[in-house]
Write a structure and sequence with these properties.
Number of strands: 10
CATH architecture of the largest domain: 3-Layer(aba) Sandwich
Strand content: 15-25%
Structural class: alpha/beta
Radius of gyration: 23 Å
Shape: globular
Strand order of the largest sheet: 2-1-3-10-4
Oligomer: single chain
CATH topology of the largest domain: D-Maltodextrin-Binding Protein, domain 2
CATH class of the largest domain: Alpha Beta
């Protein structure tokens, strides 16, 4: 009798285990898959990293594959081809792609200012005016580094390409290396690399995050993806918003995530990077349309179709508005109705 009870107990335990395993497998099977690509190992783009490491995507029914794609132009081409679902890159290449006929739109942004973006000069260069006759390093033509560098040069009465040569170096780490090798007189870098260069005596010529409105860390998708994977995008946007909240409020966890994705082990620099971005993160990630307007004004000379276009044509706030209207953000931040 005891043997029979023991056997039945084992069968019951095994059955419960198998049922639990089946439930886990079923839950995994129900997760909707999305591919999200980010363009740089910069703290500006840390929101989806945080959402991934905190398992917020899974919590919201989405299985997100995180991909690193260097170069804004390549990123947008990959998005337009349908090989990725979400691009996490500055808004200007998306605006230009839209002007060229692509069905891409901006859904949200973690940052409405290019916080943590700097034009840094050689130790002997103290001002932007001193760049006349020299070279400035950017990642790629058409990238945020390209657009912002040109805007800065014009602000200081210098003509890009005529007074100052702009050269492509591939990525932010390559720009930092180019500065150290004296390949360029100035270059465009982001945090935490600016901290390394500052220690070596390089000077900050322009801090782009101070005054300029420019969607710096947006979520960009195709309209076709919104139709095909609407529910998955809803879950991803909810996770994105929750990731922003963690980034804003949980320094220790966020710093660990920054360490993993930026591959920087210097804790002092990681904390400084966190402190650079966290205060500027949007509580509700609407895109400031003035930032899109700034992009349209800058790209108009090479995109005649930009004139007359409204900034709102490049943005789709549907998902963020749904979350706000539902009281999601009030609940997320512990506020009463």
């Amino acid at each position: 009798m005891k043997t029979r009870i023991f056997t039945l107990s084992k069968i019951l335990i095994l059955s419960l285990f198998l049922l639990g395993l089946a439930a886990v497998q079923d839950a995994g099977a129900q997760l909707q898959k999305l591919k999200l690509a980010y363009v740089s190992p910069s703290g500006a783009l840390a929101t989806p990293w945080i959402a991934k490491e905190a398992r917020l995507f899974e919590k919201n029914g989405v299985d997100v594959e995180m991909i690193f794609i260097r170069g804004a132009s390549r990123m947008i081409q990959t998005l337009v081809s349908g090989d990725i679902d979400i691009a996490h890159v500055a808004a200007n290449p998306a605006v230009e792609a839209n002007l060229s006929g692509a069905d891409v739109v901006v859904l949200a942004t973690a940052l409405n200012r290019p916080v943590g973006f700097y034009m840094m000069g050689q130790p002997g260069v103290k001002s932007v005016e001193e760049l006349r006759g020299g070279r400035v390093g950017i990642t790629q033509f058409g990238s945020a580094t390209d657009l912002l560098s040109r805007m800065a040069l014009r602000q200081f009465k210098l003509s890009p390409d005529r007074d100052v040569a702009i050269i492509q170096l591939g990525g932010i780490p390559e720009i930092a290396a180019g500065l150290q090798a004296k390949v360029v007189r100035a270059g465009f870098v982001s945090s935490p690399l600016n901290l390394d260069l500052k220690e070596l005596g390089f000077n900050v010529l322009v801090d782009f995050g101070r005054d300029l409105l420019f969607p710096h860390a947006p979520v960009i998708v195709r309209k076709a993806t919104m139709k095909q994977k609407d529910q998955a995008l809803r879950g991803a946007m909810r996770a994105f918003a929750e990731g922003i909240k963690i980034y804003r409020t949980q320094r220790d966890f966020s710093v660990k995530v920054l360490e993993k994705y930026t591959r920087t082990s210097d804790q002092k620099k990681l904390v400084q990077t966190y402190d650079t971005y966290a205060p500027f993160l949007e509580r509700i990630p609407y895109v400031d349309l003035k930032g899109i307007e700034n992009i349209l004004l800058e790209v108009a000379p090479r995109h005649p179709g930009a004139k007359g276009r409204k900034p709102s044509e490049f943005v789709e706030h549907r998902y963020v508005k749904e979350l706000e209207d539902s009281g999601f953000f009030r609940s997320l931040y512990g506020e009463r109705s």
